[in-house]
Amino acid sequence: MSATPPLPPEDAVGAWVPHGRFQLDPSASGVLDGLRFAAKDLFDVAGHVTGAGNPAWLASHAPARAHSPAVAAMLDAGATLVGKTVTDELAYSIHGDNLHYGAPHNTRAPDRVTGGSSSGSAAAVAAGLCDLALGTDTGGSTRVPASYCGLWGLRTTHGRIPAQGLVPLSPMFDTTTWLARDADVFARVAPVLLDAEPDRDWKGALLLADTQEEADAAFLPLIDGVAAAVAALGIPVQGARAPESSLETWRQTYITVSGWDAWRTHGDWITRQRPAFAPAVDSRWRAAAAIGADAAAQADALRERLRAALRAQLGETRFAILPSASSAALRRDAQPDTVDQARMRTFRMTSLAGIAGLPQVSIPFLGADGLPYGVSIMGPAGSDQALIRLACELGRRLGALGTAASTNRDEAMAQ
Asked: Which stretches make up the Amidase domain (predicted)?
């Protein structure tokens, strides 16, 4: 650490939490030399209190004694930490609006939200205030902001990156993630945070029709483009649907099991501290507290069956193509019922990778309406790096945001 650490870049988009305005120099030199990263305020940074999006959490916890493994790995690889960013309260939202710290601004769609809960991380990266940012994804908290803000983002295989030094939401589903504007930067992080894996000889791709039915029409030509690019690589593409049950069953199963797990994780602290939550977040905690043991056990048994079915459908050499969210970023003044409907539709898609514990990479595109949209590829457990390489190749072929073919367009959007 420098003797007198400089502050992070000027924050014009509300990305940083007030207690996160600090900078740490790299601890070594490596593949991330010269890059700046921010960390969602769920990650421990030695000597700083992790706030988890809520002032009561900030006030009731001591400074971290050590960096989280993800933060330490980034510093060891040569990256500079430029502070900690806003998260939705205890990460229990995918909208991107915090009662206490506000809604960070989406540079790529200024009248719209960033999505959450990795809201500040997405805002900082989209605005070019840092090259990349650490986030988390439990039910879509990186995939949704990536889609809303035109960024490269992912959900990693569950358990692949150590969860120590990370404030959990639902440990059964939580994953460590990252966001980047540039595909090459996005790919450079993979070997830093992920252990080595064998390459994949992809044998097929599944175009999940039921997920497309949940998404706005603006996604469809982008999904068709990805499917065509996959086919051009010699990988057969076939239509399919999620196995076993309707997507609503997948959503309900995720909501029940994750809610029960979240209350088991934080219920005691919430009961003792009685923190202030935004109405939507508060209602989720109340619903989580009401989930009984029998209902949780039944839902968890179904989760195991759904998990096995999706893993079997993909096998070891197939991946799925699906939207990263159900819509473009919602307007900042959207009514609560509009937000709830979008959340419900989005969870019908994002719960697939969540329940099955699978990696999913969101490729950023610009839609015909000028708004960002993410198209995802979801692969077998442990295929994270192969999936990232494939996503970057598809992005280059299609001129996705953050690739050489879109450099001028990216620069124009950042003005």
From this structure: 28-199, 295-387
Q: Which overall architecture, per CATH, does domain 204-399 show? A: Alpha-Beta Complex (3.90)
Tell me, yes or no, if 141 is annotated catalytic.
Answer: yes
- The 10s digit of each residue's pLDDT in 159-213 is 999 999 999 999 999 999 999 999 999 999 999 999 999 989 999 999 999 999 9
Q: Classify domain 18-193 at the CATH class level.
A: alpha beta
Name the token pair of 28.
């070594």
Give the pTM.
Answer: 0.95
Catalytic residue among 68, 93, 117, 121: 117
Return all residues near 232 (Cβ < 8 A) that are at least 6 apart.
397
First CA to last CA distance, the chain: 33
Nearest-angstrom CA–CA distance, 246 and 251: 9
| Catalytic residue of the set 40, 147, 362, 383 | 40
Examine the residue annotation and report whether 203 is marked as an active-site residue of this protein: no
> Which residues fall within 8 angstroms of residue 367, CB to CB, at 6 or more apart?
218, 219, 222, 328, 373
Active-site choice (141, 147, 326, 327): 141
